[in-house]
Write a structure and sequence with these properties.
3 copies of one chain form a homotrimer.
Chain A: H1 10-14, H2 18-26, E1 35-40, H3 48-59, E2 64-67, H4 77-87, E3 96-100, E4 111-116, E5 121-125, E6 137-142, H5 160-173, E7 199-201, E8 204-213, E9 218-224, H6 225-231, E10 238-245, E11 248-257, E12 270-274, E13 279-284, H7 289-293, E14 301-309
Parallel strand pairs in A: 1-2, 1-3, 3-5
Antiparallel strand pairs in A: 4-5, 4-6, 7-8, 8-9, 8-14, 9-13, 10-11, 10-14, 12-13
């Protein structure tokens, strides 16, 4: 049985605008020139990532090189886009992020550098990776790949991660090339994937399972805290969750208390909560919702949430 | 067939006290201000760890950030505790370690910073992670989480790894906050898990399988070299090993030579040896003992070892 | 159906010597004193790698420590050798690489430091890891393990990765010990694994599957671009591929267009291409050749390639 939180509901109300605050405060952090962050679907079992880091170290041995993740599901541009959105708000201005999920490597797809509002640079194939931070992008430049390329790599067509993206990213991070020298500006034109938008409908909110929170198996939706605030749902309420895949019901009328964190439910019991991106999430305390209920993520996975019980209001 | 080592037994006797020496010598290493080491059960598939590193870089872009591991089995506090014990003796004074295995995140469980004898700081939820380095902890302070927290993160309750631990750890490593400013001292009071103690009983030693040495599948016990020295067992002796799970026999009367290293037995043959923490371990040379014999680790897994054959003494 | 590339064949011809150029240009990169790169088969689930990094940080907290990979298949010296060859050309002079795939740890096998033509140092057990960069090694010195060893570690015999290799590698990278102080020179004598050589035979080229390109499942052969150039095969040609394991056919007469990159074939269709090491590779676009056709890597896996269709020549 689930144990509803006894936390006062006004705590949630009080923090109504803190999603915005969170991002704004980070914007005031110190510049981080010399910081290079790498993301890919290369995995870490082979030498691909280490080759990228070698190239970057060859550009400037004093760069601080970090990994976002290299375990994006192969070719999964959506996941790459999601990780950029999840992580970039927490890196300081001046950080250069190289993101390479690139099924079209070596074909006619373009490569770009995007500059964000807060002064990060994202170096990436232009295939949709920027979708979920699109509002944050102030300018995109197309990489002139004949000039911005590791010398001697002209015959290599399947590893732009090393030959173009890591090399250029390192030179940007090291201050050896400026954003405006990368190639021609495209304003804010770049490839965007279709993005389902969460919406309110009567007394229910509808959204998608945007990501599985691994390794735990929690479900992260695209329903923002602001929408829950607008409908007036609070910690202590009881929500009813329905999940469908391609329109076919997968989870029916599952009840979960709205809590601040997992531990306010008994082990194995369902909870609804605001995740660390301040969006609605659903989990089993210390168990995998994704595995127990066979739920995945992506535009085909939709979720509908209603309130079926209210906490006592003060 | 196993090939017993031909190494002279006095080599073992001579080094009787080197477990202590090993730790003492390391204590004289240079301070490492600016070094931050992260451990968690977050895995590296998503953006959690990278968000922590972003926050730390925002605090001070010049921190040197390293990973202990992020592949602790989800919620396994014992494993987190074991890894701290395995690794912290090898990091220099001044290192700040952030350890987040935190099933109770966002509940009433407390958060602490522990200072060790050698001057490391461990930032962690107070849930047992410090158990296996308890003797090394000279003072614990409870984190005042209302003050020591990433500005703007007040509404986020499920990711203290990012919002509190990485942020505070980075500030400690950067010298922006001192240990005595973290919050009130608790002396040496903190949560400790029950720890089985190895013991001698007649001609046998009894202990537990404390950890599986992955990826190899070797069994690491909690039986220290000093206990083997005390009973007088030496390289070249033959040991008989019995392993039980919850009291039920799992491995019966398996014979293994005491060797210096794996390669002194034939491929696939069992060996007993001192592992890199100078505790008794059992392995199959170039094979997985854990998988072959279905053996796991934890307090329920007990081991009994007797000597059934002695090497020729000089 | 596969869609052959429409790229002009002269692009391939023009770049005939760029494999050499690629390496030479990298040789002119800046020195990277203070850079330490670690490779092992330890995985990252436990504390082994973090212990190595702790020891290195204790030597000099300002070292920049990077991972090559730690997910070498346990005990697979061939894979370790392959990764060194794949990655070291992309790291600048002065880089110290520690490579520990060491089934014989603690036995009579020797330990060495190799210096390469471009001024990298490789610290490793002498068990074959240097095989695939043998031409690049100008001098090898045997490590005097009684002197070059973490103080206090004398009783530990199963973790030279921490006690000898990381410690010495860090001291070399930090400039605390010079190459000529490591131990006696052995010239260029070191252990080499047998290496199958690709060869031309009539109108076919014969080679081996040298590595599976994970996580994608592409097959990387040991057939160099120069051999394809010599037989005159070009982008747009159609190749016929046969693969055998221990002489037994595994893949028979599979046709694949020679392309610049994956995306020039339809999803799931086979392609032949030059990989990022400028050797012949075979893949399914956005699918796993290795899994679909049950193909592995190593000396037992041989490949024969013929041209069965020619692109229109200008």
């Amino acid at each position: 049985m689930s144990r509803p939180s006894t936390r006062p509901a006004h705590l949630v109300a009080r923090a109504r605008t803190s999603a915005c605050v969170l991002v704004l405060v980070l914007a005031s952090a110190l510049p981080a020139q010399g910081t290079l962050v790498l993301q890919s679907d290369f995995g870490t079992r082979d030498g691909a990532v280490a080759s990228m880091k070698g190239v970057a170290t060859g550009v400037d041995a004093h760069l601080r090189i970090h990994d976002l993740t290299h375990q994006i599901e192969p070719f999964d541009i959506w996941e790459g886009a999601y990780r950029l959105r999840q992580v970039t708000p927490f890196w300081p201005a001046g950080t250069v992020v190289v993101s390479v999920v690139d099924p079209g490597v070596g074909t006619e797809r373009k490569s770009v550098v995007a500059r964000t509002r807060r002064g990060l640079l994202i170096v990436t194939p232009d295939n949709g990776t920027l979708t979920l931070i699109a509002d944050d992008v102030v300018e995109v430049r197309e990489i002139d790949v004949t000039r911005q390329r590791l010398p001697g790599s002209e015959r290599s067509h399947t590893f732009h991660g090393r030959d173009i993206f890591a090399y250029l990213g390192a030179r940007l991070a090291a201050g050896q090339v400026r954003f405006d020298q990368v190639g021609p500006s495209r304003g804010t034109e770049f490839v965007k994937l279709p993005v389902p938008v969460a919406r309110r409908e009567g007394d229910a909110v509808h959204g998608m399972i945007a990501m599985i929170d691994r390794p735990y198996g929690n479900l992260w939706t695209n329903i923002p805290a602001a929408m829950l605030d607008a409908v007036g749902w609070k910690v202590g309420d009881t929500l009813e969750v329905a999940i469908a895949h391609d329109g076919r019901p997968q989870v029916v009328a599952l009840k979960a208390p709205m809590v601040e964190s997992f531990g306010f439910a008994a082990k194995g019991e369902p909870v609804a909560y605001l995740n660390s991106l301040l969006e609605l999430a659903v989990a089993l305390n210390m168990d995998s919702f994704s595995e127990r209920h066979g739920v995945g993520a992506g535009p085909a996975w939709t979720i509908r949430v209603r309130r079926v019980g209210a906490a006592r209001r003060p």
